[in-house]
Amino acid sequence: MLRRILILxxxxxxxxxxxxxxxxxxxxxxxxxxxxxxxxxAAAVYNDSPGSSDLTLIIQLKADDQILIDEGSPCxxxxxxxxxxxxxxxxxxTKPDFDDSSWQDAKYGVGYGDGDDNTEIGSKAANTVxxxxxxxxxxxxxxxxxxxxxxxxYDDACVIFINGVEVxxxxxxxxxxxxxxxxxxxKGSGQTHEASKTDPPTYEWLEVPVxxxxxxxxxxxxxxxxxxxxxxx
Length: 233
Known about the structure:
Blueprint: H1 2-21, E1 25-27, E2 32-34, E3 37-46, E4 55-63, E5 66-69, E6 74-78, E7 104-107, E8 110-112, E9 119-120, E10 130-139, E11 147-155, E12 157-162, E13 165-170, E14 204-212, H2 226-232
Parallel strand pairs: 2-14, 8-9
Antiparallel strand pairs: 1-13, 3-10, 3-12, 4-5, 4-8, 4-11, 6-7, 6-10, 11-14, 12-13
């Protein structure tokens, strides 16, 4: 009997540890600022520790059941080697007026090693820490939208921004409030997370509240919106 109790206790402890390690997405507490016209989703995905064998980010964004961004949507992507644009402004790259013209043309999902990436960026050999992405989407009538439905499939952790404002991130990581390019997600927290590797992707969903802002024209919009791409097709 005692042996059975010890076995059950061990199983429960291990299961609890796995649940704690498999961190989920959470809202950051900020509404997504939306304007009529073009809006920017910026997302960073982070490895948990050096030598990681894979890294993946796939996003679906919906408003009133209309898909704004999806797997296969165009984006700009980069494997950063420094804070962009600077150490003093490590999240400046998430703002609409940031110039991403030198970044790689890509499609979600991005990453390496999982076999589910439309655009392969980074590698285990390169000891990739993070990948940054930027994707534009169009809102015709933001006043009619009460929330955005954000779905993310990722490995190991990510932080999501709308028009330069953080709206969601993976819970339980060691990524600081202002993420840097070299912010490993596990520096003692034990955080890890595996992508679903399913087709279609299995997303973790969040309902992101919104607020309406005045229109701002981006300096350089170098990736087509998903809606425009579908019209071309």
